[in-house]
Amino acid sequence: MKWEGDRESGNVEDHRGGGGGGGGGGGFRIGGKGVGIGTIAIALVASLFFGVDPGTVIGMMGGGGGPAPQVQQQTDPNAPQAEDRETRFVRTVLGYTEDAWTPIFAAQGSTYQAPKLVLFEGRIGTACGTGNAAAGPFYCPGDRKVYIDLSFFRLMQERFKVGGEFAQAYVIAHEVGHHVQTLVGVSDQVRKAQAQASETEGNALSVRLELQADCFAGVWANKTQQKEAFLEAGDIESALATASAIGDDALQRQSRGTVVPDSFTHGSSAQRVRWFKRGFEKGDVQQCNTFEARQL
């Protein structure tokens, strides 16, 4: 993946012990009604906020109580930004997502408002509760931020035997896909629908939401390739290998030896690969309507 020297986003907050102050500020908000990108923003339900305390999510979905107490990490706002390769890579990938989604929203007569991306170590307080690095990267719609502990990328290589910079970029693009879903007015619908759905129904709809984020990541890759020609041989294959490795069936088989489809929340390996490829090959968000797809 060729990225060095490209524009770096200023929307990264570094909350690591030795990191800099980052972009500062809170999440963005779109006023008024949700953004209409084709027909994709309909009946979206049961988002599983990967990496956030499930009890907090259940409370949010059911409408009971407020967010869990936040565990704030203290950083020096005047400290210089970290300039190591990993940090510059994350800033560049986030910049790519901004450059891809801005014209997509503009074509619909709307303005894309980019998320903040927060780098942290171990644990961090969010509007969705306490985020834990062990659970992996996640997006919190409550503050409209993506949270990543960079040690997850090393875990990808050690545990799942997948890696490479484009595979890491796919992970970031997937989480930004959840931000797009929030911008189009999904979050309120999610909470209302989840309160009325059975567990199995909620899981099935969560799968559709996650697969749509995979498809959005594919659209991002398509648009960025057109603009930056950043892909190298093997990059797409590394992303597909990652999508396959983190499918629900693969994870369940690895952890418990059996597969329980009704408990899937993110989609099978084959489904995740299929929807990323669809987004990449079509380059059109209107092809990412997993909620009207008869076959996932």
TrEMBL record:
Keyword Transmembrane tagged: yes
Topology of this chain in the membrane: Single-pass membrane protein
Pfam families: Zn_peptidase
Record key words, sorted: Membrane, Transmembrane, Transmembrane helix
InterPro entries (alphabetical): Uncharacterised_pept_Zn_put
UniProt subcellular location: Membrane
Chief location bin: membrane
Protein name as catalogued: Neutral zinc metallopeptidase
Species for this entry: Massilia jejuensis
